[in-house]
Amino acid sequence: MSIQENNKLIAEFMGAIPIVFSDGTKGHSFWNYDFDGEGRYGSFPDGSTNYFDYDKGYHTSWDWLMPVVKKCFQTGDDTYEWDNIMDTLFTCDIDIVYAQVVEFINQYNKNK
C-alpha cells in the first residue's frame, strides 16, 4: 500500500469518516452531519477537523503517530503485531514505528 492509502487507513482507525468535500476533493472528517448543531466529535492532531493532504501527517510527525500508537494499545488486542509496536518504539525511528502501526491496523481490521 502507498503512504496515502496507509494514512487513509490510519485516519479511519482513529475514527474519521471518509467524505467528499463540496469542491469534489476526497478526504476524511471528524464532522458528523447527522448530529444536531455543529456535530464535531474529534479532530486530527493539528486541531483540524478535515484531512485531505495524505502526503503529510501520520508518517512524518510523532505528534500525529503517537495517538495512533496509544489507540492500538488501548484496543487490548494483545497480538504479535501489538508486541511489535512496543518493540519498534525502542528504535525511535518513525518509519519503522509507522510501518508496524499500519501492520497492526490491517491485522486488527481482519480480526474484527
Please specify the SSE layout and strand pairing.
Blueprint: H1 3-13, E1 17-20, E2 26-29, E3 50-51, H2 62-74, H3 80-89, H4 94-111
Antiparallel strand pairs: 1-2, 2-3
Helix pairs in contact: 1-4, 2-4, 3-4
List keywords for this structure.
single chain, 4 helices, about 45% helix, about 10% strand, globular
Protein described:
By secondary structure, this protein is mostly helical. Helix content is 46%, strand content 9%. A 3-stranded antiparallel β-sheet has the order 1-2-3, with helices on one face. Strand 1 and strand 2 form a beta hairpin. The radius of gyration is 14 Å and the shape is globular. The mean pLDDT is 81.
Structural class designation: mainly alpha
Percentage of residues assigned to helices: 40-55%
**C-alpha termini separation:** 20 Å
* Rg, Cα atoms, Å: 14 Å
What is the average per-residue confidence, as pLDDT, rounded to a whole number? 81
Described by strand count, sense and barrel closure, the largest sheet is: 3 strands, antiparallel
H/I helix tally: 4
Categorize the overall geometry. globular
Poorly predicted tracts of residues: none
Percent strand: 5-15%
Pattern of helices and strands = HEEEHHH
As laid out across the biggest beta sheet, the strand order is: 1-2-3
Number of strands: 3
